[in-house]
Amino acid sequence: MARSPPLARVLPFPVVDEAWRLALVPALVGAATLPLLPPVGAVLVVLAFGVLWFHRDPDREPPDAEGIVVAPADGTVSVVREEGDRLRVGVFMNVTDVHVNRAPIAGEVREVRHRPGANRPAFSKESDRNEQVAIDFGEYELLVIAGWFARRIHPAVEAGDAVDRGERVGHVSFGSRADVVLPADVDEDDLLVREGDAVRAGETIVAERE
Q1: For the chain, percent helix, then strand, then coil, each to nearest 5?
Q2: 163, 178, 185, 201: which sits with the fewest CB atoms below 10 Å from its CB?
């Protein structure tokens, strides 16, 4: 995915490139307002820094093991359920979590689909009907689901792209959920996480395949 511009080196953490566009207006208005209305200007400058922090993009080191599935997002496991002959594992991303999504399993992207929908809170049962982007890898699918405030899902891959396990595949702004519909050969005995568990994208092992 696109990485941050050279200006990002002044920050103590890397950010995705979209963050600079989102932070630009409050930063400029805040800087201009500081001499006239210091409290308002300070709030806007802090808001701009908060946007950059929210879009931080730290490096991750995927486990070096065969047959494992890693978490697609930072956050808390909020969904573990059967869908036909497949299992779905969903991770709710809170506002304090990194919102860069990663491939749970290496593979080639077959299709990237956008589906319009509602904007219910991402932790609610009704969020399955929310706006979402599906990244179809054939044997499994990664679904990025928008929350009530998150209306910007940015896939960084397209059909034909090959990705490694743990590689960045996109990001979403301001709260959401990332679900993986696991390959058919993964069953409940293979799962290593339960609802309520905290996970880290690209690093936490959520399942082991035989």
Answers
A1: 20, 35, 45
A2: 185
